[in-house]
Amino acid sequence: MSTPTATTLTLDPLGPHFGARVEGLDLATAHDDDLVAVRAALIDRKVLFFPGQTLDADGQVALGRRIGELTASHPVVGGVDEAHPEIYALDSADNGFADVWHTDVTFMARPPLGSILRAVILPPSGGDTSWANSQLAYDSLSAPVRALADQLTAVHDGNREFGYYLAQRRGGQGSVWDGEVVTRLDPVEHPVIRVHPETGRKGIFVNPGFTSHIVGVSDAESRAILDLLYAHLTKPEHIVRHRWRPGDVAMWDNRATAHYANRDYGTAHRVMHRITLRGDRPFGPAASR
Predict the structure, then answer these.
(1) Residue at 284 is within a domain
(2) Known catalytic residue: 104?
(3) Can 274 be counted among the known catalytic residues?
(4) Would you indicate the residue range of the signal peptide (predicted)?
(5) 102 catalytic, yes or no?
(6) Catalytic annotation present for 12
(7) Rounded to an integer, what distance in angstroms lies between the CA atom of residue 193 and that of residue 286?
(8) Domain holding 190: CATH number?
(9) I need a labelling partner for 91 at 20 to 30 A (CA). Which of 33, 63, 148, 263 fits?
(10) Which of 39, 45, 102, 255 is catalytic?
């Protein structure tokens, strides 16, 4: 059953704790109060879906600027065109796939706060996207495993996915990220368990796409710990799945989720446009005490 928020939003929850469709809101004409309510719902539900939107590239960028501060399209990959340096095009005709569980851009010191994704070209079927709730996953870990994970730090490395692209397709010069031109992807360290800066909730903050290893343990121990956390994070009860329709827009909290896009549509064409909101430096349980 749809439930109204304290303001003007009507949410159709996708599960008891996670995900919701926002019914009847036109993002192109939304009032400021509406977007304040969207931001609150995003923190609560982690991922929101807005059906039947009419946003174009200009409208998507304008929406993002009303919600937060936009980043460049990506630290390494340029914008969709010169007029929209903020838009990252995921185009299946140009290897634009996201078929590994990941949290956006965790290989930078300040990963994005959140992302807004717009369907541009959809295959006739397939190409669904799933999101995992990292906070729900943390809460359902056993107490001894939570105590271990709270102490750990992990390395995130973008070179495996984007090092070649930076060197060969961008000539060693990427986008401006946090005020500096990206010329190399130095691995960064983040806490394995991230404390959400707005709610104080803890969530699993490692992902198969960009996390390379756990600091201070053996390779075998690192693999075992990460495999355990990945398997737990992506249990069905921690996941919502979205079947895209023309006009759909999704928005998610990058500090509390991971996601995966199915690559099950063969040679059909799929294009999605993403923008990201500038985030802060992750901190773990030790720093929050």
Answers:
(1) no
(2) yes
(3) yes
(4) none
(5) yes
(6) no
(7) 10
(8) 3.60.130.10
(9) 63
(10) 102
